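Listing S7. Sequence submitted for prediction.
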Amino acid sequence: MSTSQHPVALQMERIVGGDARLLALVMMLPLVDGVFPALILAGALDEPLGALQVGLLIFGGSATVAVILAEMEGSPREQATVVLLVGLPLILLAAVQAAFAPAIASVIDIGIFERFAALVIATIAAQTASATIGESLPNPVVVIGLGLVASVDPSGAEFAVLTDPALVANATLAAGVGVGFALAIALSGPYLREYMDIDRFRFGSAVALGLLPLSLLGMAFGQAPLAALVVAGLFAVDIPFRTGEDEDSSADGSAAAKMDALADGGDATESPAVDGESADDGTDTPGRAPWL
């Protein structure tokens, strides 16, 4: 059930190949293509809940799940080691980008750039939902570049390092949440490969990503993207809740039938009559009266 045709993961696998390199590219792509700095500048990490939401959707998400469950090989411990090797530099780079965000903010119009950041997330959501739709949309890097060009305002340019430790902490938290999510997927891989439908989770993740830009634009969606992701995860896992109960009820029913047969004077191991043949054929048998 865990086999996935995730369009983003498949495209990246063709580019880089290899489990560790593919996972590194998937998880670090938001740092490379400018999506994570854009979210920092757009105010998506101003609160811890926002950091949790960004970490799960941007660094975690369906592409990371698809790579770990459908592409990576080895035991859960080996996969967890790969996740940590990729995740520790990821957390460090996220903190560094958050620290230097003011240098970028000083040369752009944040109001304009927020709209382009929302457009980038919407583009990624569409690409996650469907490879066909994604082919007709511009690359997120192109959208980020256009956003920088449209919002650039060099009049207030200055080189500054972030003096707000809370924002750096939230950026680190977002990366840490993404790494923790990937680590949990790797450790629970044997179970999830059996019971989780990755493509179903992918569509739910796309819905959650589609709600995130609306939150960035100030609409009253709050933590709706996070809630949508949680619901997608719940619906993507098929847990056989009633298997044991059904077996117990079947066994109880069989035992009750045997007790009823014994109470009627029959034999618990007696076979039912064959179709077309009466159970009482009226033949004389030793020890049995002919009218019985």
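Caption to Listing S7: primary sequence and predicted structure tokens for the chain studied. Residues 89 and 120 are 24 Å apart (CA to CA). The chain has two domains: 7-236, 246-292.
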